[in-house]
Amino acid sequence: MLSLAFVCFWVVLASLIMLLPRRFHWRGAYVLAATGVPLLGWVTYENGPFWGLLCLLAGASVLRWPLIRLAQRVRR
Q: How many domains does the chain fold into?
């Protein structure tokens, strides 16, 4: 359950980064991605694959623009 509390904190942190000026958004996205990947593994390990998949979808919705840019680069 502690891992889910950290996921909630991660989502609040993502919302706060969104409120910052635009020049900080990409740096914040890199920090969120770097902390989100191990957090996702922890959630999946502690709570099972259902919660891991749910947190993966939540993280992808928060970080949708970095994922879109990554997909565009991969296509080239």
A: 1
